Amino acid sequence: MTDPAPDGASAQPGTTAQPGPAVALPPGCELLMEPPDLDSYLRLRREAGLSPVTAEQGGPALAHSWAFAHVRRAGEAVAMGRVLGDGGWYFHIADMATLPAAQRLGLGRAVLGALLDRIAERAPADPYITLMADAPGRPLYRSFGFVQTAPESLGMVLRGRS
Question: Nearest Cα to 70, choosing from 104, 95, 52, 48?
Fold first, then answer.
């Protein structure tokens, strides 16, 4: 996986993202509704193919996310995702990552389902839920009801302003 491609996906306001089929975690895996430690966060991003970030970037990401979920297997963080948001209307799924050796086990489905459940439990009605969908994750996101927003809107990024 790579970092955001220029085609975002969102669950439209007035609709609810529908979870795909429930997936039981494999034996030895545990889903935690909290961030992994900083070293695990940085490693998961790097090894799953997301763009690497520094500890100075990762620390605030862990501390200031609206919600976080990660899966541990044998004491190691192997999958994660988080929600950025204002708690009222806007929620953005980010940092969906699974280690290559732990892919195809339903861990990403479990993480995304848990994050969407958290939004459904705590947000007011009709939240606007978005994400940037890299090619490998698109089938998973579609199975939850996410749709491409282009050409009405298009994800964009601003790089190199530091």
Answer: 95
Give 73's strand partners: 29, 76
DSSP 3-state assignment of 114? helix
H or E segment and range at residue 81: strand 76-85
Confidence of residue 162 (pLDDT cuts 50, 70, 90): low
d(CA 32, CA 29): 10
- Report strand pairing: 128-132 vs 90-98: parallel
pLDDT tens track for 141-154: 999 999 999 899 98
The set of residues, in sequence order, having a beta carbon less than 8 Å from that of 42 and lying 6+ positions away, is 52, 53, 55, 58
User: How do residues 45-72 score in pLDDT, each as one tens digit?
Assistant: 999 999 999 999 999 999 999 999 999 9
Q: Which residues contact 29 (CB under 8 A, 6 or more apart)?
A: 71, 72, 73, 78, 105, 107
CA of 83: how far to CAs of 28, 94, 131, in Å? 25, 6, 9
Rounded distance, CA 125 to CA 117, Å?
A: 13
Residues sharing a CB contact under 8 Å with residue 47, sequence separation 6 or more, in sequence order: 99, 100
Which H or E element spans position 141? Answer: helix 138-143
